[in-house]
Amino acid sequence: MVVIESIFDFIMVLCTILNVTMEFSTAKMKEMIKGQGDKRVSEESAERLGEILETFAGDVAEEAIAVAKEDDRKTVRKEDVKKALR
């Protein structure tokens, strides 16, 4: 039996069930925020930053795929990502 004590535990269990991995770990997000200043970082803020980055990365990936398709290619290249960010 799995004991769920926080929303983070729930998300991790759900990701395991759905066979999905979180690309941006909470620990990495905390490290990123701490690197910008000498402040403590809450679990919730680190999780939220990860969610935002995942959404942003997904949007950029979709646009990069569209750029590659416009050029009749199946492979997404670095320049496609650069165009997607414009």
Descriptive account of the structure:
With 86 residues, the chain is mostly helical. The protein has one domain: Histone, subunit A (Orthogonal Bundle). It is built from four helices and no strands. It has helices at residues 7-17, 26-35, 43-70, 78-84.
| Rg, nearest Å | 17 Å
Largest beta sheet, briefly? none
Stated plainly, the CATH topology is called Histone, subunit A
CATH class: Mainly Alpha
Number of domains: 1
- Mean pLDDT over the full residue set: 79
Assess the beta-strand content as a share of residues. under 5%
Number of helical segments with 4 or more residues: 4
User: Which structural class do the helices and strands define?
Assistant: mainly alpha
Q: Write down how many β-strands occur, each being a DSSP E stretch of 2 or more residues.
A: 0
Distance from N terminus to C terminus (CA atoms, Å) equals 48 Å
CATH architecture: Orthogonal Bundle
